[in-house]
Please model this.
Amino acid sequence: MLALLVFMPLTYCTMFLPGNVAEWLVAEEHPIEALGVLGLLAGTVVCFVMWWEVRGDPAWPRLRRISLLGFGLLLFILAGEEESWGQRLLGIETPPSISEINAQHETNLHNLTALHAINSYTLFASLLFAVGVLPPVLGLWAGPRRRLEKFMPILPIALSTMFIYNQVLYWGFHRLFIRIPAAYHATYPCAYSLGEIKETFGELVLGLGFVFILAKRRHHRRSIDEVVPVARPTGHSR
Model:
């Protein structure tokens, strides 16, 4: 958690770097975007692994187990959309029929011209609030937590503060660059670079949330096994 507290503002500070460096860092398939995609893919794998581990666990209600499959699929789709389903990495050309209706001529859904009335950054921020902020905050009270845990895993409250921290950093740097536009040297629009960095950390923290849930569950299981040793069948005496 401390690493995120330090690393997040440092990443926003890359916008002060010379234009060519700042542009390279925030470009498609480059370090900043890749960090978010790795977080989503890690969360995807963890959701499916956790579903496999809890599939027969009576402590996990059926709907909560199923929700792991839903979250795993959601994170996988988000990662695929972020990377345009690997088309640039694999050198695959966008089919003409898709290129004509995609604002960036990519193989993805979020850049379709028909959806341009929808702000993808706002939509993603709403998703993060609905999954990463609201449930952990409501989960601070026993009653709401019991109801929520019937149908979804709840991310750690400490991580929900990271979503808020990320948003505050975004607002702060946005205001700074409005007041001092000369501090930003890249040719990309400032709002684009800020949005990409904010989105990356949202993706990373979301993926880490499920990693922490799995780690906590495994630690809890180990603690139980240490306190209550597994019973071994006794042999018949001769």
About this structure: Residues 2-87+119-224 form one domain. The chain has one domain: 2-87+119-224. The CA atoms of residues 46 and 215 lie 10 Å apart.
